[in-house]
Amino acid sequence: MNYSLRDSNINQFFFINDIIGIKKIKNIIDYRLLERFSHPIVRPKNDENVPDFFKQALEKTDIPSNEKIKEIFTDVEDTFISPEWREKIRETDETTYTSNNEGVSGIGAGEEAILCINKFDEAIFIPLTFSVMVRKGELFDDIYINEDLTEGKVEKELKNQEILLNKSGFFLSYRKIFFKFMMEHGNKVRFPKIPYKWIGYENLYNDSILWIKLIEHAIENYAKTYNEDIKSAEFAISEKIIESDITAKTIGTVMGWFKHYDEILLSSGIYRLYRTEHPFKFGDLQNIFKVLCDFIQSDELLLIDPGRIYAASLCIQDFRRKVFQSSKNDDASFISIKSKFNKEISQILINTETFIPLIIKRITLIKAVEPLKINPHYREYIASN
């Protein structure tokens, strides 16, 4: 079901299953539930206030009921379905949307958030430990809002940045978009980083995160060897890494390497997209390996080249930055993948709007609010000074 019917030159398919299974497959295809740029429609409830022309359009369109869509979704493997859409269907059943957005799940009253205000006196609320997608000229990136950042540091990160927001309220992340695309389309691409090379993006990515996987392995070994719980083992290994004279100076920074990640659902499995792609410098990675030698069998580490790991992470960063740029040195596979990714981003940008904050504050909400939505009535969610 992960095969793209639209992009294929094949004009006839045969599905083998029982009668019930074939019926479910037919529903998925008929309603295009797995299309990359088309998503299942959720019917408004009968008592919801929607424009007349929208009601008339729905009546003339062959759209299954919410119950039917939920039934179809239940029968499709989780790895094929966007979690955002699954949540959207669940919310339609459980939540009544009102004009003032009361009851919408988001940032709760009493929680801290980042308030960003633009020149039109409109605002967005960003949850802590979240990220936003920004555009810098022709390039894109993610800015992470860590809970331990001061208001001043958050302001420095976000002020005058061109934040991209999805008009439907869904979370946007350039790194996630890039990762999903490359995992789907990049497994025949050759990635050179002298003196190393990789064939296929998944091989490149697996090498780039191997240092974190080794830290996690060392933590597990430490916990077993010393009969400690995982939290104690995480602290102990992080402390030893800090003591090895690396650039990072706090245990929290090191623990963030393996604790801060996003889980990405793909047809081939669940992947961890770690926020930290490599230590500050190659010498740090070499020192980390010296620490890990005490907790991982030497024969496991002998076959691993720290230089290859570091080069893989740099290669990913370099390609992600240059994916919108053409070069006379690009081979055919690079030219093709860059062209496809540009089309992918263009499709995503159709449904985005830009927000440029001028004022950034860390606030505590007095009322629940939907995050990452432009809000001209933001004052009602914060305490007056």
What report would you give on this structure?
With 385 residues, the chain is an alpha+beta fold. It folds into 3 domains: 19-94, no CATH class; 112-168 and 351-381, no CATH class; 178-348, no CATH class. Helix content is 41%, strand content 16%. The protein has 14 helices and 11 strands. The strands form 4 sheets. Strands 4-3-5-10 form a 4-stranded antiparallel β-sheet. A 3-stranded antiparallel β-sheet has the order 2-1-11, covered by helices on one side. A two-stranded antiparallel sheet has the order 6-7. β3 (130-136) and β4 form a beta hairpin. The protein starts with 18 loop residues before the first helix and ends in a 21-residue tail after the last strand. Residues 33-40 and 72-105 have low confidence and may be disordered.
Assembly form of the protein = single chain
Structural class category:
alpha+beta
The averaged pLDDT comes out at 78
Distance between the termini: 55 Å
Order of helices and strands: HHHHEEEEHEHEEHHHHEEHHHHEE
Tally of helical segments: 14
> How many whole angstroms does the radius of gyration measure?
24 Å
The parts where pLDDT drops under 50 for at least 5 residues are: 33-40, 72-105
Tell the overall outline: globular
Detail the topology: elements first, then pairings:
Elements: H1 19-30, H2 52-59, H3 66-74, H4 83-94, E1 112-117, E2 123-127, E3 130-136, E4 139-145, H5 151-158, E5 162-166, H6 174-185, E6 190-193, E7 196-199, H7 201-208, H8 210-225, H9 230-242, H10 251-259, E8 261-266, E9 269-274, H11 282-292, H12 298-302, H13 306-322, H14 332-350, E10 352-355, E11 359-364
Antiparallel strand pairs: 1-2, 1-11, 3-4, 3-5, 5-10, 6-7, 8-9
